[in-house]
Each structure stands twice: as structure tokens, then as C-alpha cells.
């Protein structure tokens, strides 16, 4: 079954809807809540786009004005709450994302698809640097996660666990790929090296 075409596709819109299930909030409070709960590690958040997202959610009937508030001399703030239609949209959208794999385009995959433009020795140097950076990142994430486990229910840390697993899996794959280049066991590596050293494109590359 094809995925339903949604009125909004920005992941930040889904994060806003889920956040508003906790209670009505103004946009600044939504952003602060997302950051406090660590959702900025999995969803790109900035104030400008968040205000636009809230306006679009209101336009499509997924959120509505619940109240307005003013503190001191500050400008009046509009407080939004999620509507019944917004709850239905949240449930359907989140269920679809969890159940149906979709093709994504990470920038590292793009770089891998084009690495033939660099000499194999240079690629090895660069990937060795990447592995070191991934190991540092994994160690940092693992330490932070262990500390968070002490005060935050695991339910709210699942995406951090997933991020750590992906970092570790990527580092393992890169190490294996590096070993193939180093040993010359990767199919086509000789032609790849020959091309960069002679400028001649091997027949198998055409």
C-alpha cells in the first residue's frame, strides 16, 4: 500500500504535534521543551521554522489557539493546543514512519557513491580519520546515554540508542571496507588505482 500523501511532511511538524500532547504551549515553550527532552538530536529545530510550522499546523486544523498570555512588558504570546484532527494525524503519521522503511539520502552515502574521484590511498587516509571521529563520537554518546539512564526513562532515549548503534555499525563497516582496499581484495580496486596513476580508464569502468 502506498504511503498517504500528507498535508505536512516536515518532521518538525510531527515533533510539535507530539509535544503538544503534553499540554498547550506557545511556540517558544515548544522549542524549549523539545530541547530539554533532547529531541534536537533527532529533529532539526530553529525558532524561525518552528513558528512557520505551527502556523501551517493551525492552517490545516491540526492545532488551534488555546489561550493568549502576557508576562510583564513582554509581547502577548499565543498558546496552541492540539486538536482531535491533530491527534489522528499524529497517530497515523507516526505509525506510518515506524512501519514503512523509506529511502533516505544521507550525505555520507553520496560521498561513497563518488569516492572513485579520489585516489584509493587518499580515500584510506580520509576513512581512517572518519573511523577515529566515529569512535570518539560513539564513546561520547555512550557516556552521555549511561548518565541519562540514571534519571530518564529508556522510552525517551530510544532515538539516542539508535543513533549510537548506527555510529558503531558505520564504524565497523568502514573498518571492513578499509581492510578490503588495503589488501587489494575489493573487486575493481586495481583498476581504480591504475586510473589515478595513469589517467587511463580501465575497460571494466566503461
What does this structure look like?
With 206 residues, the chain is mainly alpha-helical. The chain has helices spanning 11-20, 27-36, 47-59, 84-99, 107-113, 120-149, 158-183, 189-198; strands spanning 63-69, 77-82. Strands 1-2 form a two-stranded antiparallel sheet. The chain starts with 10 loop residues before the first helix and ends in an 8-residue tail after the last helix. InterPro entries: Metal_resp_DNA-bind_regulator (IPR052509), Tscrpt_reg_PadR_N (IPR005149), WH-like_DNA-bd_sf (IPR036388), WH_DNA-bd_sf (IPR036390). This is PadR family transcriptional regulator. Residues 16-91 form the Transcription regulator PadR N-terminal domain.
Topology:
Layout: H1 11-20, H2 27-36, H3 47-59, E1 63-69, E2 77-82, H4 84-99, H5 107-113, H6 120-149, H7 158-183, H8 189-198
Antiparallel strand pairs: 1-2
Organism: Streptomyces prunicolor
Domain Transcription regulator PadR N-terminal: 16-91
Protein name: PadR family transcriptional regulator
Amino acid at each position: 500500500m502506498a504511503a498517504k500523501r500528507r498535508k505536512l511532511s516536515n518532521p518538525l511538524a510531527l515533533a510539535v504535534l507530539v509535544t503538544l500532547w503534553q499540554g498547550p504551549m506557545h511556540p517558544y515553550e515548544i522549542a524549549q521543551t523539545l530541547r530539554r527532552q533532547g529531541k534536537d538530536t533527532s529533529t532539526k529545530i530553529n525558532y524561525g521554522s518552528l513558528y512557520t510550522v505551527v502556523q501551517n499546523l493551525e492552517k490545516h486544523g491540526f492545532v488551534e489557539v488555546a489561550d493568549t498570555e502576557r508576562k510583564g512588558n513582554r509581547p502577548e504570546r499565543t498558546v496552541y493546543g492540539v486538536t482531535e484532527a491533530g491527534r489522528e494525524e499524529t497517530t497515523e503519521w507516526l505509525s506510518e514512519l515506524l512501519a514503512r522503511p523509506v529511502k533516505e539520502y544521507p550525505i555520507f552515502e553520496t560521498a561513497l557513491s563518488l569516492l572513485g574521484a579520489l585516489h584509493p590511498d587518499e580515500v584510506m587516509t580520509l576513512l581512517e580519520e572518519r573511523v577515529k571521529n566515529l569512535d570518539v563520537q560513539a564513546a561520547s554518546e555512550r557516556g552521555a546515554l549511561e548518565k541519562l539512564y540514571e534519571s530518564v526513562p529508556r522510552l525517551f532515549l530510544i532515538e539516542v540508542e539508535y543513533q549510537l548503534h548506527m555510529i558503531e555499525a558505520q564504524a565497523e563497516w568502514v573498518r571492513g571496507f578499509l581492510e578490503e582496499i588495503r589488501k587489494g581484495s575489493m573487486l575493481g580496486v586495481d583498476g581504480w588505482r591504475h586510473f589515478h596513476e595513469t589517467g587511463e580508464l580501465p575497460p571494466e569502468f566503461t
